[in-house]
Amino acid sequence: MPAVVDPARCNRNWAQCFPAKICPQGAFSVDSEGLVQIAFDLCGECPGPCVNFCDGYAIRYERDPGEFDIMRRQLLGELSEDDALQARKELAQAQAEARKAQAAVREVTVENFQAEVLESDIPVVVDFWAPWCGPCKKMAPIFEEVAGKYAGRVKFVKVNTEDQPQLAAHFRITSIPTLMVFHGPRVIDGAIGALPRAQLVALVERVLASLSMQQQASPAETPAKPAD
User: Fold this and answer.
1) Alpha helix positions (H), 121-196
2) What contacts 207, CB < 8 A, 6 or more positions away?
3) pLDDT 10s digits, 145-156
4) Which of 6, 47, 117, 183 is most buried by a 10 A CB count?
5) Do 81 and 50 share a domain, yes or no?
6) Per-residue pLDDT reduced to its tens digit, 25-54
C-alpha cells in the first residue's frame, strides 16, 4: 500500500532507518536535507511492514489512492487543514458519483436480454466485452460515467462475450469492445472499439436527437369523435 514519511515526526537518522533496510521494493531514499523519502508508486500491494519498524511512527499509509494523495500533500505542507477537508469532501462526492454510475450499468445474459434490451421503453447501449480485453477495461469507467449521466433517459448494459457466447454469435460480434444501440428490437446505432468519453457522449446524443426528430415528425393522433 502507498506510504509517505511525515517530516514532522521523522528523526532524519538515515543511517539507523531500519524500515529502509527491510523494504522489499527498495522504495526508501534520503534527500539532500536528510529527510527520508518513499517512492510510493513502488509500494504496490505491500502490506507495509515498514510502518511497524519506524521508531518515530513517522510512516503513514492509506489504501485508497485518492485519500492517500490528500494525506501526502497535507503532510508535505502542500495543503492546509481547510484545503484538505475540502479535498476530502470533493473526493467523497466523486466516489459517490462513481458508485452511482457503476450501479447504472447492468450485466445482461441470454435469459434477460429480451426484457432488458429488446423490450426497453428507452434506448439501450449494449457493450459487448470480455474480461481479458484491455481496451474493454480501459473503456469501462467511461461507460459507467456516461451511464450515470444519462440514467433514466438511456439504459447502459454489458454483455460478457465469454459467458454469453450465444448472444455474441447471434449479433455476429467479431471484435470487442463493440457497442450496439437498440431502440426496441431494432439496432439503430453503434461503434466498434474503445471510445473516449467525448465520442461515447456524441454517440448517445446522436441517438437521442434522432429519436426526438422521429417523434416530432410523427403526426399526432387525432382523438376519435364521438358518434352522433
Assistant:
1) 134-149, 165-170
2) 123, 154, 181, 183, 188, 189
3) 899 889 889 999
4) 117
5) yes
6) 899 999 998 899 999 999 988 887 888 888
Residues 29 and 55 in one domain: yes
Q: What pLDDT is attached to residue 222?
A: 47
Is 133 among the catalytic positions? Answer: yes
- What is the residue whose three cell numbers read 470533493? 90
Say if residue 53 is in the same domain as residue 140.
Answer: no
Coil vs helix vs strand at 133: coil
pLDDT category of residue 228 using cuts at 50, 70 and 90 = very low
Q: Quick check: 20 and 14 in contact, CB under 8 A?
A: yes
CA distance 75 to 88: 14
For 89, 91, 99, 104, 148, the CA distances from 96, given in Å and listed in that order, are: 11, 9, 5, 12, 11
For 154, which DSSP code?
S
Which range marks the domain in which residue 34 is found? 3-97
Burial 81-114 (b: 16+ CB within 10 A, else e): eeebeebeeebeeeeeeeeebeebbeebeeeebe
Identify whether residues 92 and 109 lie together within a single domain.
Answer: no
